[in-house]
Known about the structure:
About 60% of the residues lie in helices and about 5% in strands. The protein is mainly alpha-helical. The chain has one domain: Orthogonal Bundle (Arc Repressor Mutant, subunit A), CATH 1.10.10. It has a two-stranded antiparallel ribbon with strand order 1-2. The longest helix is centred in the last third of the chain and has 25 residues. InterPro entries: HTH_HxlR, WH-like_DNA-bd_sf, WH_DNA-bd_sf. Keywords: DNA-binding, Transcription, Transcription regulation.
Amino acid sequence: MKKAKEITSRSDCPISHALDFIGDKWTLLVLRDMMFAGKSAYGDFLQSEEKVATNILADRLNMLVTNGFITKTASTENKTKFAYNLTEKGISLLPVVIELSIWGSKNNPSAQNTELVTLLKKDKEKTIREFTKVLKKKIA
């Protein structure tokens, strides 16, 4: 498996810079799964309903590791498998992913009103703080 290249920004625009890292759906869906579903193993990500291809998943995981959003460590149960965990940098994207969730739920007529969306409507700031606390415990 080839190593992902470190991403360099195409311009000084903050939006362009952010999109250089998280501008494709697969990267955002991996982050979503880690943040809200607690997924950490390669096989876990493959089971997501969006059905990412194995080569794309491997590429996105490598890119996230190379650029410091997640770590990759040998699994404690099976040394031939790996566990992926968010870093502080990855966790810092939580508010962005939440805002995309809110926007998506408002603009998709068939979107399900998930428990997360309900919590966000009730108290977004508290929900972000609680998720951040849980995610940071995993890296402490």
